[in-house]
From TrEMBL:
Protein name stated in the entry: DER reductase
PANTHER family assigned: D-ERYTHRULOSE REDUCTASE, D-ERYTHRULOSE REDUCTASE-RELATED
Stored InterPro entries: L-xylulose/Carbonyl_redctase, NAD(P)-bd_dom_sf, Sc_DH/Rdtase_CS, SDR_fam
Keyword set includes NADP: yes
Amino acid sequence: APQCPGIEPLCLDLADWDATEAAVGAAGPFELLVNNAAVAVLQPFLEVTRAALQRSLDVNLQAVLHVSQIVARQMIAQGVPGAIVNVSSQASQRALRDHAVYCSTKSALDMLSKVMAMELGPHKIRVNTVNPTVVMTDMGRINWSDPQKSAAMISRIPLGKFAEVDDVVNSILFLLSDKSAMTTGSSLMVDGGFLVS
């Protein structure tokens, strides 16, 4: 907010459908949207709980669908072109131990984004994903703080490091900008080469 005084933060639980509808519906008008909220509840496949699955589906998939519906409807009503970027993960395309739910929700997000791109394209709304490797956010530090675990992952990244927040932000800015005016339904890997290793 200090860098962009015109931004008005909304603090709400995106898993709460009605509260999200009221808060986001009253905001706007919109031309751009970045869906970045996510949870990563890591459990071995045989120990996945219903609560972890539901929470992950609510935030990682349902919230993206719902917020995007609200924003896209406003974009269409305004008759202006728009861009939506959904923050996915390399985990949408590569199985990771203890990530059964996270990998699954991110794979679903990639496909949701493709369907959105197809259906919203005629309204001049582009939809893409960025798919980063581990990013050094608070969530990234919590889940990858074990040096043995992180070293094993970094060894599989040709560039030899995890992503910084700016690496992802710069990719998002590209996909929101006119510099990517012919790009929709695509996934931009920000993974240091993880998926090619």
